[in-house]
Amino acid sequence: MIKYLFSDLDGTLLNPEGVVSATNVAAITASDLPMTLVSARAPIEMLAPIQALHLNGPQIAFNGGLVFTYENEQITPLQMHPLEQNRARMLLEFIQTSFPKVSLSCYTQDHWYTEHVDRGVLAEQQLTGQQPTIANYETLLADETNRCFKIMIMTLDTVMIQKLAADLKALNYADISVKLSGQTYLEITSDLAQKSSGIAFIKDYYHLQTAETAAFGDGENDLPMFKSVGTAIVMANATPDIQQVGHWVTKSNADDGVAYAIQNYVTEG
């Protein structure tokens, strides 16, 4: 019997407008099952769905780089895997020098930083409702308390982003994880920042058996999550190779696929 749910956000729980639909909220509430959101997003970008679903347990940000709770308007970290400080500086410099046309940002636990506002930053603002802080990366990371959890690259040039991903992996830095999120986003985190590590923390926290867990997702960065749960449910908007790993394929995020799966595969499964 499934006792606990995990869900990715973008392309999964959130509809194309970037919100949790009333249908999904109703289905999750009616299931009476606890849920942890598992996202590449920063905590500040997860607050709207956390509040919409009235979640008060541990949540997973930065693809597993941070496990946290949010109560009384306070983010409290439970487990942290930021990028090593010098590595973050090296990566930001490499991207700025080798791929100057991409949109580049970095995230600490509580803030989103960029050196300048471009089309990618504006699009992310519209999607998440967050405002970036303008800062020089070298100055920012010179302060050791500003731990970088994620470097995010955005571009509509799919050839360029594929080349950037390949070039980053060719650097052979064993302490980083490079993952495409959709066709226009590339995210760099610590190699320890895996959705699976965050889920392992939650399973231990609540003494859950793998068979008692289910997860919803749509992307490459969800594969470690799928391997960590008893029931993997993939969205119809996922690519065919991702769909192949699921126990079930539900409707798309535009058609309230999480709600459909809960009603047909989880509570009735």
UniProtKB/TrEMBL annotation:
Gene Ontology cellular-component annotations: cytosol
One Gene Ontology term of the molecular function aspect: magnesium ion binding
Xref: Gene3D superfamilies: 3.30.1240.10, HAD superfamily/HAD-like
Pfam families associated with the record: Hydrolase_3 (PF08282)
Domain of life: Bacteria
Alphabetical UniProt keywords: Hydrolase
Record-given protein name: Cof-like hydrolase family protein
Organism: Lactiplantibacillus fabifermentans DSM 21115
